[in-house]
Amino acid sequence: MHSNTLLEIASEYGSPVYVYDSEKMASQYKRLTNAFNKVKQVKINYAVKALSNISVLKLMNSLGSGLDTVSIQEVKLGLVAGFSPENIIYTPNGVSLEEIELAANLGVQINIDNLSILEQFGTKYPKTPVCIRINPHVMAGGNTNISVGHIDSKFGISIHQIPHILRIVENTHMTINGIHMHTGSDILDIDVFLYASEILFETAKNFKNLEFIDFGSGFKVPYKEGDIETNIEEFGKKLSKRFTAFCEEYGKELTLAFEPGKFLVSEAGYFLTKVNVVKQTTSTVFAQVDSGFNHLIRPMLYGSQHEIINISNPDGRERFYSVVGYICETDTFANNRRISEITEGDILAFKNAGAYCYSMASNYNSRYRPAEVLWLKGKPHLIRKRETFDDIIKNQIEITL
Q1: Domain range 269-386, CATH class
Q2: Catalytic (active-site) positions
Q3: I need a labelling partner for 14 at 20 to 30 A (CA). Which of 182, 189, 259, 337 fits?
Q4: What is the pTM of this model?
């Protein structure tokens, strides 16, 4: 999006504010489907946890996407957004049997990742087909917190426990209609992913009633100019060929499924903040903005880098700044970053703010969560109002002292 457009949005809706470009989401969706256009049946399930605004979900629905959900609340959001239950897969981790039963009663595809729940669910609901999440014991991902397929991970049923799964299936007479894995986020090495895929194919041979194989996601998106990203086109070519061959071997045309979140929405998002203070210390120049890790926690949580541009002075002389927030705790967005000269009142845009930014926001320091704006068909649309003081206190109950 152009700097002037973003400035107009900041002027109209105030700051801080999240802005999402629907055209970028659509082009990323198309890029992914094109990469796998040699496969007869492909299903993209957008990972709701990345950005769960109902208007964004409706946009995904209009593109032909399904949904990947991890909580009963996300399932309900999907239904409100107009998704049919059969286009929603529910993959929780460590939740109660009661929550899984609620999801099953809503008619969505259940994906189970532990033996205990598999046995309990299969005993109680043998006629409800389920998918199984396998842990392939493959380390992949850009950070230990987002690598979920390794041997010490809490996610999935170990490939070494396949005999246990088969015994439960045999005893309960339940139907396994899908096999799933997710190795981690920010995957760069396609060969590692393909190696994990081979483990999934090998596992799939144990189940005769499969309808789909879900390869998860975790594709790396670029976070700065020249940054490396997953070569989705090369990956699509290699996995499509192998998947088609497996379907022939299996004797049935299966659906190839993915559940991208960040890949579809990260680059579409901008987070706009206003510079309150430019503070010179003995060694640093701080640009202090009207936000903090209550709105964008990823740099503090994962050490992630978000490119920051001064859209009020995009062509100005570059100087070094540390961009920090207003939270009463260290909340550094960037250290000694080259940014066009900053003046108090300027608007800074954080790129790649579509995924895991608003969805991880909080009311820390009793601050309000920002508004969200969707750029659609050449116009900005407010899709979430900025919070007010009433939102901070609405669920609090005052007691008489």
Answers
A1: mainly beta
A2: 328
A3: 337
A4: 0.93
